[in-house]
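Appendix B. Raw example, untouched.
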Amino acid sequence: MTRRVTIALIIMTALALGVVAQKRQVMVDKVVAVVGGSSILHSEVMSTANDLTQRRREAGYTSDNDPYTEALEALLLQKLLYNQALIDSVEVNTNDLTSRAESQVNRWVEEAGSIPALEKKHHMQIYHLREMLRRRLEMQTYASTMQNEVTSKVTITPGEVERYYNALDKDSLPIIAKQYVYAQITKFPKSLVAAKQRTKERLLEMRERIITGKTKFSTMARMYSVDGSAIQGGEMEPQVLAGFVQPFADAMRELKPGQVSEVVETEFGFHLIQLIDRKGELYHCRHILLRPTYTIEELVEPLQELDSIADLIRKDSITFEAAAAKFSDDVHSKQNGGIVTNHDLLEHYNAFDAKLTATRFLEEDFGMGRGKSIEDYNAIRKLKVGEISPAFQSQDLVGNNLSKIVKLVEIIPPHPASLKDDYLRLEAMALADKQSRVFDEWVDKKIEQMYIHIDPDYRNLDFMNKNWIK
């Protein structure tokens, strides 16, 4: 074989391999659909389908539905919401997306073992991966905000709740799981004043370091703040002053961009606030949140006091109701015989309404962000009706340390939902049903109005919403 022929064969082989590689690349990145100004790639659908399958596996959930079809439909909806959000000029906070993407990529690096291993797994360099994730988070943020714009306007009347209930098949009414009614007596540490002073002094030291240029506000927030915004350097979403609790809002109103506040006390703890900027009525800030901390001795003291009170109640020297009124630090329950309600949760979300008062709690109502502490549940589940728990430590809704004893007042066994006993649960179900219907109608209308094209190879997929195929 001559050298010229050999070279020709090498070139032909290289070209052939290039064509194969190009075809493979085209297949991986084939445009499956276009929604508005956004395209959906085959590789994007595959990634979403794999994530969906993984979440199902972790949750022990199986489905007969094709994950690829579900993934493509989810992406179609997301792109529709994203494009409509741009059309409607919906305002969202995208300032923390870079740091969120960075944090996620860092977690992936730890799981993969190294940056090269992660790049090999995803077939792209880390900075491309980081930017891809940031864009994905941005689109998700716009989409979720747009969906909330639609559903948050939906309200429901008592008449609609009753009609919803009456329309349910009485043989398949939703079953309300076991519920608990309980009472409590709470005590904050007596050294609360001293602990607050220590917290103020600590924040003042931080403030001095920040304003003298020894460290950045965002760095101190990441290191010391106990708020969820710490990972973003204390940065919060821009919002109107009414969106902040009053002392916080009052302090921020007086700040100029870049300026750091004095120590501000709110129901959540103690803050330092730095105003980033103000656009119209929207205030954009970052903050550092600290809560009082205590020594072991300071935490043990209220436990001992509460155990003594519990002994007096068990000996019939005083009733639980009278002891709650005399000794409890909880303003919501002490005048009500210690009976625990959801008033603290309603006030926390500025949604207090007497008709929303609940005194029955499901197991799922206990835990992080669910209104009642898991410590409460661990105490009452060991009690018989009428019994009083030993004293235990817990936290209130905003994370302040306290101690308490609880009394199990009543256990309501599982039962079919009824308007008389479970109105609030049924109202929530009826509202969710109405929101779903309103949102589906809105989506159908936007599908009709917006440019949507699905590749012919994917038009025979069994979508839940048949309107995607035009």
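End of appendix B.
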